[in-house]
Every structure is written in C-alpha cells, then in structure tokens.
Design a protein that fits this description.
The complex is a heterotrimer of chains A (252), B (299) and C (306).
Chain A lengths: L2 E12 L2 E12 L3 E5 L6 H9 L6 E6 L2 E2 L5 H7 L1 E3 L12 H6 L10 H6 L1 H21 L15 H13 L5 E5 L7 H16 L3 E5 L3 H7 L2 E6 L2 E7 H6 L1 H8 L2
Parallel strand pairs in A: 3-8, 3-9, 6-7, 7-8
Antiparallel strand pairs in A: 1-2, 1-4, 4-5, 9-10
Chain B lengths: L1 H26 L7 H19 L3 H24 L3 H21 L21 H25 L1 H11 L1 H6 L4 H27 L11 H12 L6 H17 L5 H22 L26
Chain C lengths: L5 H32 L6 H18 L4 H29 L4 H23 L14 E4 L2 E4 H23 L1 H11 L1 H6 L4 H26 L6 H16 L4 H17 L11 H13 L9 H5 L8
Helix pairs in contact in C: 1-5, 1-8, 1-9, 1-10, 2-3, 2-4, 2-8, 2-9, 3-8, 5-6, 5-8, 6-8, 9-10, 9-11
The chains are: A alpha/beta (252), B mainly alpha (299), C mainly alpha (306).
C-alpha cells in the first residue's frame, strides 16, 4: 500500500462551526495533492488536525498504517510529518541558519542530560545539522542569507526559508500551507522545483493553495473543500472543469 | 567589617535568586511567582536536615536544592500539561498555600521560625569565609546559567520563546524543556536558601512572603530579563537601594513598606520606559563557522 | 461517625451562605474582567485593598457617615481601576506586550498598593467600624444577624442586576460581544475600549461592596486582599473561564465547603482547603467544572453570529 497518510472520517467543530465534516482522504508516496476551496473551507484546520495542534472530535489519522491520534504534535513531527504555516512562524530573533538547525527530527541538545554528559555528541549533531541546512539552502539559492536574521531578508525569501526549515525534517509527509502566497519570480520557480524534487524523492506532499496555475502545474490530483467537507476529489483537470465548483469558488 | 561581610553574603544570595528567577521567566518565558517559596524550601530543608540528621552544611544545602526541584515538578507537571497560564495560577497557589502550611506545622517551627541551625564555620573569620563562599557560588551559578543559555540548548529555548507552536511542529518537546528549566531554576533558589540558613542560622516564614516576589521581580525586570548580567546588576541594585535610604534613619515600620514601594515603582517605571531592563539579552552563541546577524534585542 | 444536629447544619448553611456573599462579589469582579478584557487581573487585590482603606479612612479619619464613605470608596476604586486600564493596560496592549509582562504588571501594581497602604495605615489589623458585631435575631432556631441579611441582599441585587444588564441593556450586550470576539465586535462598530472600561467599572462596584461587607465583620491588613483574591481566582477556574455566573456558583460552593469543613478538620487548617481545591482543579478540571449545567442556562444570550 502506498498510502503514507490516511484520514478516516475526521470531524471537528468549533462552537457550532463545522471545520471538518467526515473527511476521508489518502495521501500517497510521490503524490502532490492540491487542497483547494474558498476561504474558511477548513483547509488550514485540516493541517492543524493532521499535525496535532487541534484534536478531532471523531475519526482517525494514520501515518504508514499506524494511528497517530494519541500523539502530541512534537511526536508527529518526529514520526515524519513536516509542515509550513500560512503565517510562516519563523523564529524572529534568530538567523536563517539557526532557524534550520533546530528543525531536524531529532535535536540532541534538546535534552539537558545530553548537554551535560554528551557534549561531544551534541557538537557533532550540530555540525551535521549545519551541513544539512547549508545543502538545503543551496538547493533553494539561499546560501547567502544563512547568517541574516530572518526579519532582515525580503518576504519571498522568508517564505523560502519556511519551506527550507520544513525540509530539515526528512520524513515521509510534507504539508505546505499556502507556500506561494505573496511569492513571485525566482522564488516562485525555486519553490515549484523543490516541491517537485521532494515528491520525486518519494515524499507525500499536500499543498493548500489559491494559486490555480501552481495547482495546475504541480499537483497530480486535487481535493475541493467547502464548509469543512470534501466536495470533490480527482484529477486537477476534472476539478477545474467542474462548473459547480467554479460557482462555489468564484461566485454565481 | 562584619557589616561589609553581611552585605557581600546577601549580594551572593540575591544574585543566585535573581539569576535563577531570570532563567525561569526571562529565558524560558514561564510565568511563575513562586520563587520565594523555593528559596524557603531550600532554607527549611537545609536547616531541618542539619538539626535533625546532623548533615553537613554542603550536603544539607544540596538536599535543599533537590527538595526544591522536586516540589517544582509537583507544580509544573500538572499545570504545563494544560497551558502556561495555569502555571501562573498554580504558582500563586503554591506560594501562598505552602507558606500557610509552613506557618502552621510544628516541625518547621511554625510562625516562630526555625532557629539554632548549626553552622560549620565559627570564629572570627566566619564573615570572611561565608562571603567568599557566597560570592563563589553566585559566580558559579551565573556561569552555569550562561553556559546553558548560550549553547545549543539555549538556541532551542530562544526558538521556543519566539514561536512555541512552530517549535512543537518541528519535533521539539517544549514541555520537557520548560519542566527541566523550571526544576533547575527552583533548585538553584534552594541553594540560595541553604546559604541563607547556614549564615543567619535562623529561618522564619516572613522572609518568604509573596511580597518577596516584588524584590525578585525588581531584580530581574530592572536588571534585564533574559540577559546574563542583568540579574547581577539587579541584585546589586536591590542591596544598594535600601542602604541608600537607611541614611534617612526612619523607623523600621516605615522603612520596610517604603522599600517595597520603591522596588515595585521601579519595576513599573522600567516596564513602561525601558522594558528590556538595564542590560539587554545576548542570545545564543553563533554556530561554528558562522556569525550572528545584526542582533537588535528582544521583540 | 457521629450524628450532626440538624439545627447546627442549618446554621452552618445559613452563615456559610451569608459569608459566601463577599466571595461571590470578588469572584464576579475577577471573572468579569477575565471574560471581557481577557486579563487575569491580579491587580484586583490592590483595588480591593484600596477600596477598603478608602472607606476606612472615610469612616474613621474623616468621620463621614457610612453611605458617604461607601460612595467615596467606590469613587476612589473606580478612579484607580480606570486609571489602571487607561494608562497602564492600554499602553501595554498597544505595544503588544507578552502575557508574562501583563502578569508582572498586574501583580506588581497590587504589591505597590499593598506597600503604599502599609506605609499609610500600618500593619495593625483593623475592621471598617469599631463595632463589628451586628444585632442578631433567632429564626427557627437559627441565628440570623443584620449583617447576614445585608450581605445576602446586596449580593443578590448586584448579581441579578449584572445578569439583567448583560442580557437586556445594549451596553451589556456589547460587553458580551466584545468578550466573545473583540475584533469582530469592532467591525460591527462596538467600541471595545468602552467595554473594557465598563467591565472595570462594574468590577469596582462589586469590589467595593464586597470589601464593605468583609470589612464590616473582620479586621483587615493590607495583604488580606491577596488571600481573598486567590479564592476568587480558584472559583473562576472552577466555574470555567468566561463563565461569570458559573464562577459565582463555584464561589458559593467553595465557601460552603470551607464552612462545613470546620466540622471535620481543625480550624487553623481551614484556610488551606482553598489551596487543596486549587490543585484538584488544576489536576482534574482545568477547563472548569461547569461546562454544562444550570449555570450555563443563566448565561447571557450570545451576540448574534456573523
């Protein structure tokens, strides 16, 4: 079975508003799934449910067949669910490189016991993480800002850093929340190329996007959400051709 | 001369208290008001173990630190499970509640306090020895905290403070870090307690009232939250200020509240005029082979 | 297991209810500010102390009649709380200050007030009036004092008044809207700042009333209000944050437990019950006990959804 991530009947409502209505979905290796729909459809909420930020009211989430429902967010990340955020959420008082170095699945210096009793191992882990980070930054043409504070680089590059940081997690699942919003030119092309590379390497990628050309270009299939429910799934071409969806999205 | 020694010893104790409190609220960003009670736990444990089990001062002080750290777990484990706000409420309850227990229980000496704590050092050089010990411990604590905060662990703490949600989503166990930092900070307060108990040989509940937290907040907020030397500056300030007003020769009934008003007013003024305190925080050391960006201080 | 006399139990119930009055008032004040302003207002202890000592000075130093003294106390408390909101909180809010700094600010304000009042009035415990015993009558074997009746009456009037205000008055409904979602309310033209000010004003009324009742019966020192406030905090937690009347109910329940506990434990430990409840709450009911129950039905109708 190629399904990396399985959502099984996920339900969630906040004070009367349904953000997830029996969502059943599968994400497979090498797939780039586009998640589209009007604002407030529950797309980001779905990511929050998957990454564990919000607990569902009902349903199950399985990573490689194993239920992760009981796992807190940090464990889900360590198991291989990486994500970016709509608001980026970069660490604003730190440099680009520092943002990346705290991002791998395992961080030796997280435990004070390691810090005290295994300083050598901690130093080595730091070096390895540094090298990995620099490789990713090079892929994304960002090496020159490695030592800049994230608040000192332009917006487009900040978004690239958000993606780069998520890539430090080499797990099977990558969730991208509106990665293209506000990005254009070189950064746009770089991002597209990187996402393609990741999927080609076997990752299961899910992208929330409003940018239709990005979806058409990159996604192998798509899901249309509205009011917390999946209205249609299928190939991108089919979804975009559907008149009812166009009405929902753009209005009558 | 004795007077000078007692000042130096107090400086040492206050530096340990301020630095450890700063670690908790300035570095880890945990909201807790219960630092005085951990100071008390250390002092009482050290005193009681010395009196009843004849433990040597050093061992008794370490016992005080361990007890304080264990009690901190009682506080942090249940409340951090929910949210940081709960730690705040739990800390108030802990501070007030445990103090009530101490005041009402016989083996702590209740309201009258614990006296006749045996001291390992007697004789004419007592003041000198204690000053050296106190300042040495203070220096060691400051250095230790600096080492924690400036290394890769400190990088994790800074990231946690900047955006905890993103931090969690990267795979970092933020709660564990908070619990550990809290335990370390409270344990260090316990050491300050041991120092206190063995110098003054008398421990009473009044020194650990919630109003003592005003003094600690002054030291940290005015000195500079999150910086290494800020608490040191704050501690010296807190010792120097009362000395400045003793010249007014006011009766103690007036002196104490006047000092308190001064401290709290200082905190308020600084919060509005210079929230980063006297000394700005430094942040972790750069990665090997790289340098910092232009670090401009906290948000 | 020994049998308790029914009259004794009834007496404890009545006295407990009467004593819970000021706790209910303090709790409502705290819970309302938390609900509307979204602030754990630890400065309330300072406001409570200011309320008491203002009335104390009015009665004992200026020799004013009680009604004037209470009015004076109310004015002073209002001034203090509004100054706190307008000059303190608004500035911090505009700077997007962290919750840690807000916490420190509110607590330090209480501490400053405690120190300032100690400076002015000393640490000698003092009740509001020289005479703290009020006339008692026996009804059905139960001692009912004038103070008891006043306490229950004042509390009922203020509490019901607040409930009606939040439900029926336009300003009250605006306050609820701001409590639900301040940004959304602003989009509808509701002034959030005014709602915050109103919340503090109402809290001041409750605080003043509570301190009057408390001070009429017990001697007070500048740090007394901190202990009283902690009770209000715990009741707020138990009642579920955002649930003002649930908190009030919790305050009554907690107070009664404390009153009845005297039958089972030595009185010097009575004060610790509150702390025990704090830990039980944090361990087992962090979201509050009253998530559904009669207290929620008393809750105000929400502002219309978008």
């Amino acid at each position: 079975m190629n399904a990396v991530l399985t959502l099984d009947g996920l339900c969630k409502s906040f004070g009367g508003i349904v953000v997830a209505d029996h969502i059943t979905l599968e994400l497979e290796r090498g797939q780039i799934l586009g998640l589209i729909g009007p604002n407030g459809a529950g797309k980001t909420s779905l990511f929050n449910l998957i990454s564990g930020v919000v607990p569902p009211d009902a349903g199950d989430i399985r990573l490689n067949g194993v239920s992760i429902l009981a796992r807190p967010p940090y464990q889900r990340a360590r198991m291989g669910i990486a994500r970016t955020w709509q608001q980026m959420r970069l660490f604003r008082t730190m440099t680009v490189l520092e943002n990346m170095v705290v991002a791998p699945r395992e961080y030796a210096a997280e435990s004070i016991l390691n810090l005290v009793f295994k300083p050598g191992a901690v130093r080595r882990a730091d070096e390895i993480a540094c090298e990995q980070a620099m490789r990713i930054l090079e892929r994304m043409h960002l090496s020159q800002c490695a030592d800049s504070l994230v608040t000192d680089i332009p917006f487009g590059q900040q978004k690239l850093v958000g993606l780069a940081r998520a890539l430090m997690n080499d797990g099977p699942c990558l969730l991208l929340d509106e990665p293209m919003a506000g990005v254009e030119g070189q950064a746009y092309d770089t991002m597209k190329a990187v996402v393609r590379q990741e999927a080609a390497a076997g990752r299961a990628v899910c992208v929330v996007e409003h940018n239709i050309s990005f979806i058409k270009d990159l996604c192998t299939s798509a899901v249309f959400m509205s009011f917390g429910a999946i209205l249609e799934q299928g190939s991108v071409a089919d979804l975009l051709a559907s008149k009812s969806l166009a009405e929902l999205y753009f209005g009558p | 001369m004795d007077y000078l020694y007692s000042i130096l010893i107090l400086v040492g104790i206050y530096v340990v208290l301020a630095s450890s409190f700063n670690l908790i609220i300035g570095n880890a960003g945990l909201v807790s008001i219960a630092h005085p009670i951990f100071f008390a736990l250390g002092a009482y444990t050290a005193g009681l173990t010395a009196i009843h089990f004849g433990l040597h001062a050093i061992v008794a002080t370490l016992a005080g630190a361990v007890v304080a750290a264990l009690f901190s777990l009682m506080m942090s484990l249940p409340s951090l499970r929910v949210s940081g706000d709960y730690l705040m409420i739990t800390s108030i309850g802990f501070q007030l509640g445990l103090l009530q227990v101490i005041k009402n229980v016989e083996f702590t000496g209740s309201q009258g306090g614990l006296s006749n704590i045996p001291t390992p050092v007697t004789g004419p050089y007592r003041g000198l020895v204690y000053s050296v010990v106190s300042l040495a411990i203070a220096a060691a604590v400051v250095w230790m905290i600096r080492w924690i905060v400036r290394g890769p662990y400190g990088r994790a703490i800074t990231a946690m403070r900047d955006d905890e949600l993103a931090f969690l989503a990267l795979g970092r166990d933020a709660m564990r870090i908070k619990i550990v930092i809290f335990a370390v900070g409270c344990g260090l307060a316990g050491i300050a307690g041991g120092l206190y108990a063995f110098y003054y040989q008398y421990v009473s509940p009044e020194q650990f009232e919630i109003l003592a937290s005003a003094a600690m907040l002054t030291m940290v907020v005015v000195g500079g939250m999150g910086s290494t030397l800020g608490p040191v500056v704050g501690a010296v300030l807190l010792i120097a200020l009362p000395q400045a007003i003793t010249f007014l020769e006011l009766p103690p009934g007036i002196m104490a509240p006047l000092q308190g008003m001064l401290f709290t007013l200082l905190v308020i003024v600084f919060m509005f005029i210079r929230p980063q305190g006297l000394i700005s925080p430094e942040g972790p050391t750069p990665l090997p082979g790289h340098r910092h960006g232009n670090r401009s201080g906290p948000r | 297991m020994f049998m308790f006399d029914a009259v004794v139990l009834a007496q404890i119930l009545w006295t407990g209810l009467a004593t819970s009055s000021y706790m209910v008032l303090f709790t409502i004040a705290f819970a309302l500010v938390l609900k509307v302003v979204k602030l754990w207002n630890f400065a309330q202890a300072g406001l409570m102390a200011i309320a008491f000592y203002a009335m104390f000075a009015a009665v004992n130093q200026f020799q004013w009649p009680t009604v004037v003294a209470v009015a004076f106390g109310l004015l002073v408390t209002l001034a203090a709380s509004l100054a706190f909101e307008i000059y303190g909180l608004r500035t911090l809010r505009a700077r997007r200050t962290s919750s840690l700094m807000f916490f420190i600010f509110t607590l330090v304000c209480s501490e400053f007030a405690a120190y300032a009042l100690t400076f002015i009035f000393g640490t000698e415990p003092a009740p509001l009036f020289a005479q703290i015993v009020s006339p008692v009558r026996i009804l059905a074997g139960i001692a009912v004092s004038d103070w008891d009746l006043l306490a229950v009456a004042v509390t009922l009037v203020l509490t019901i008044g607040l409930a009606l205000y939040l439900r029926l008055a336009r300003e009250g409904q605006f306050m609820v809207a701001v409590a639900d979602n301040a940004d959304l309310a602003e989009l509808y033209g509701i002034n959030a700042k005014r709602a915050f000010g109103a919340a503090f004003a109402i809290a001041s009324v409750f605080i003043c009333a509570g301190m009057y009742l408390y001070g009429a019966r017990t001697a007070v020192i500048p740090t007394t209000s901190l202990q009283l406030m902690l009770f209000a905090v715990i009741a707020t937690l138990l009642g579920g944050m955002g649930n003002v009347f649930g908190a009030a109910f919790a305050a009554v329940a907690l107070s009664l437990v404390q009153s009845y506990s005297v039958l089972v434990i030595p009185s010097r430990w009575q004060g610790l019950i509150v702390y025990a409840f704090l830990f039980i709450t944090i361990l087992f009911f962090p979201r509050g006990v009253n998530t559904s129950g009669w207290a929620t039905r008393l809750r105000v109708r929400r502002a219309p959804a978008s």
